[in-house]
Amino acid sequence: MSPILSFKSLAPIATLIVFWFIPAPEGLSIEAWHFLAVFFAVVVGLIVEPVPAALVGFTGISVVALLGLMGNAKASISWALSGFSNTVIWLIFAAFMFALGYKKTGLGRRISLVMIKYMGKSSLGLGYAVAFSDLVLAPFMPSNTARSAGTIYPVASNIPLIFDSTPDNEPRKLGSYISWVAIATTCVTSSMFLTALAPNLLAVDLIAQGTGNTISWSAWASIMLPLMIPLFLLTPWLVYVIYPPTQKTSPEAPAWAAEELKKLGKITSKELLMAGLAILALFLWIFGKEFGIHSTTAAISIVAIMVGTRVITWDDVISNKAAFNVLIWFASLVAMAAGLKKVGVLTWIGNSAEIHLATMTPTMLILSMLLLFFVLHYFFASTTAHTTALMPIFLAIAVKLMTPEQLIPFSILLAGSLGVMGIITPYATGPSPIWYGAGYITQARWWGLGAIFGAIYLAMIILGSFIFI
């Protein structure tokens, strides 16, 4: 076993042992402190990943249940499995089936090619074609890795090659521009829609647990869309100005896209059905409350229709490892986060923070928390780990120090920043390693661009605090 693997394996165990034997701080019970020790070990495990992340979370709830930190045996197992009955978790699972439908029918690839055909006559147009391809898919794909790396990348990565732009030959000609537009816009769309990033949905569930406020799809949109739409429209142009391609026109790209569309043939009935079901899902996510239909009910019902109409098969559903991996992963993390409140850790954090932060003005408190939450992502290689580790703590402080009127928009802005913060490093969000690995952008350049665009994106979140809070 290599030293690195050994460290990865031992780090969570060492964290658990160290915190377990530190005396519990005043105001916390022994059980609460021991639960917090397991929670810290899970977070470290999510960061270093000695085993798959889902197994880290699953092991965490198992350890807590075995140790009886939630009470008697029945109470412990009820808590451990509580995440699997969470409606948000099943909404995420259903959305993975939507992504599968886009891929299997070929609709996702067709959308990207159509965008390139009609918008790709210039390099700037190609940037917008890549951006709008992501935008169309974003509301229905909670995995930005599946969306950007799995759907957009296979199409967009072929474009620079038409112009002989490769990582080793004139990367700035077009490849660097396309790569940065792709990752920058997927970060924006990840914040734009509640269902565009799985950690958004996890964060919303933590908001419900921590504040008692339920954030709907439309409530999210009412704050994030006014902020993200201008940012989305500006991003390809900003990249064109800050990190311009040397190739300004691209007449070959539309011709290539048209040829690829010919190979796909005419749009199929299953593609049309997939498009119709996606539109229906979006309609019900926005307006379903008016008809007494829960968003998760709408999602799983449409998945059933997708299987019944053979858009996807039942074998596709039960063999989708990514979907079941996320189901187990997030269900475990939801239970762990709920446990923080159940054992009294969040109340203790809120009371402690109140003493130190009560002298700050409301404006300074809000700005400081948004800034800190964003910047701390430099230390995380997983948005999910970031959400699990920090969201409950920040919400516990906010509940103590903010008015109910401030709390809801602040919570949405805090959760909404999870998408855009993915721009700051080559490891900050799922698709980043794929686009970085394409080789068009050096590590030093990526960190520099990440700092510039991270500052712009953070500024928009902070502007939102002045508008909505």
UniProtKB/TrEMBL annotation:
<keyword id="KW-1133">Transmembrane helix</keyword>
<dbReference type="GO" id="GO:0022857">
    <property type="term" value="F:transmembrane transporter activity"/>
</dbReference>
<dbReference type="InterPro" id="IPR030676">
    <property type="entry name" value="CitT-rel"/>
</dbReference>
<feature type="transmembrane region" description="Helical">
    <location>
        <begin position="30"/>
        <end position="48"/>
    </location>
</feature>
<dbReference type="InterPro" id="IPR001898">
    <property type="entry name" value="SLC13A/DASS"/>
</dbReference>
<protein>
    <submittedName>
        <fullName>Anion permease</fullName>
    </submittedName>
</protein>
<feature type="transmembrane region" description="Helical">
    <location>
        <begin position="79"/>
        <end position="102"/>
    </location>
</feature>
<feature type="transmembrane region" description="Helical">
    <location>
        <begin position="219"/>
        <end position="243"/>
    </location>
</feature>
<feature type="transmembrane region" description="Helical">
    <location>
        <begin position="410"/>
        <end position="428"/>
    </location>
</feature>
<feature type="transmembrane region" description="Helical">
    <location>
        <begin position="177"/>
        <end position="198"/>
    </location>
</feature>
<feature type="transmembrane region" description="Helical">
    <location>
        <begin position="326"/>
        <end position="349"/>
    </location>
</feature>
<feature type="transmembrane region" description="Helical">
    <location>
        <begin position="361"/>
        <end position="380"/>
    </location>
</feature>
<feature type="transmembrane region" description="Helical">
    <location>
        <begin position="7"/>
        <end position="24"/>
    </location>
</feature>
<feature type="transmembrane region" description="Helical">
    <location>
        <begin position="55"/>
        <end position="73"/>
    </location>
</feature>
<feature type="transmembrane region" description="Helical">
    <location>
        <begin position="448"/>
        <end position="468"/>
    </location>
</feature>
<keyword id="KW-0812">Transmembrane</keyword>
<dbReference type="GO" id="GO:0016020">
    <property type="term" value="C:membrane"/>
</dbReference>
<keyword id="KW-0472">Membrane</keyword>
<dbReference type="Pfam" id="PF00939">
    <property type="entry name" value="Na_sulph_symp"/>
</dbReference>
<feature type="transmembrane region" description="Helical">
    <location>
        <begin position="272"/>
        <end position="288"/>
    </location>
</feature>
<feature type="transmembrane region" description="Helical">
    <location>
        <begin position="295"/>
        <end position="314"/>
    </location>
</feature>
<comment type="similarity">
    <text>Belongs to the SLC13A/DASS transporter (TC 2.A.47) family. DIT1 subfamily.</text>
</comment>
